[in-house]
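Good day; I would like, with your permission, to put a structural problem before you. I would ask you to consider whether the tokens describe a fold that such a sequence might reasonably adopt. The full record is reproduced below for your convenience:
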Amino acid sequence: MRLREIFLLTILSLVVAASCSDDNKAPVEPPVETPELSIGDLTVAEGNPAIFTISLDRPADRRVVFSYFTVDVSAQANLDYDGVSGVDTIPVDSSGLTILVPTIDDGDDEPDETFTLTLTSVSNADVADSVGIGTIIDNDISGVSFLNDVKPILMGSCGPGCHGFGSSLGGLSLGDLSYDSVIIAKGPNTFLWNNTTDSLVVQPGNSALSTLYTKATSSPPFGGWMPLGGVSPLDTVLSNRIKDWIDQGAQDN
């Protein structure tokens, strides 16, 4: 065999061998793309739960585990909100979850306040945003006026046919709904509930013991809520106005 033919056969055998070798290789798996984890900011009215949303930019193909904890900024744990911490998991095929932080309706007239919920020790995800800012909007009004703010509520919800102008349902009469009548009004069940001897429905500086306020909430201390026969208690904005007036001293203003 000529030298040239031997050379060509050698080259051909090498090419065939290389081709067979490539065909026997296992297929290359594409790289696993790691999802990105982030937490959103929020704004919440004082007394309502702050619900933070933790999300992935795509559903997880592995469990994503992380730790979380709250941090004071201008809001203080156990005064303005309930501090929380723990470990949570986003399951496979899910793209997020929520974490609830209760806020506290403290009755103080104050600026809006903030705290953060921080994520740490994240596994199986890259972190795009690890800090959620929670802003608590104050719901207390300074300088609530009996004449301009409270009396109109009483006139609309507790007037004729209920507790005013000759009516005394449940044994409670608010007279002509003037300040002088309301501040001395007594409820027959009040002393049994708040351990006061005077039975006054307004306890200046303490809305929690004042049935003029507590009976207008969704969880009255006894009996049904007011207005009587209503499908729901007094609107929260209105009941909070009565609450603030009492907590500010129940002034004749």
